[in-house]
Amino acid sequence: MNLELSEKARKCLKKLPRPIQKKAYKSFQLLLNNPRHPSLRSRKMSGTGFYEARIDYHNRFAFSIEGDTVLVLTLGMHDEGLGKK
Could you give the CA distance from residue 50 to residue 19 in angstroms, rounded to a whole number? Predict the structure, then answer.
């Protein structure tokens, strides 16, 4: 699988503290190797064709899978980063 970051995801990633950025890249790698890895707790977001997964307890990322490409759409704090509030 390949990984792509949307422009919004790149901007959100830059704004995160360095330790969270490192956790995000680790989560992306886990997702590419095993989308069902237990630490990701990935799930389909209700009402959308997108998925969300954990970076850590407070931070999540939203993504879609298109063929063999994972497209990270956005990331950040749980509700704020995923556009839920």
Answer: 26
